[in-house]
Amino acid sequence: MYDPELVQPFRDEVTRLGVKELRTPAEVESALKLPGTTLVFVNSVCGCAAAGARPGLRMSLMNAKKPQNMFTVFAGMEAEATAKARESFAPYRPSSPQIALFKDGKLVKMVQRQDIEGRDAAVVGKLLADAFNEHC
What we know:
alpha/beta, Glutaredoxin, five-stranded mixed sheet, 5 strands, 20% strand
């Protein structure tokens, strides 16, 4: 677990976008039962989260179409909530960061660390916006 004061700015960067934090497995379970489109953002302290994932998410939310529900869990902080979210990501293996898009409870798009690492935030944002345009 990381120092909570260290990660607070990383949390704030995502929650300022209107993304709700999930801190318990029960909260994750409830969130994933919601109808419509649901985004789950696995936040982390790594460089690719800072350089690509969080700014890419911000850019994608400027798109006309967006998920109806948006949630985040923080890898390395709320381990049980993160593990519960990742159960729904099968067959994809865990990565940090990681972004999942569900439609009516079915996983329709997964963005893994390897899709983010070394890519410009605008590329990540477009990848997400394209998924929103297709599924939202």
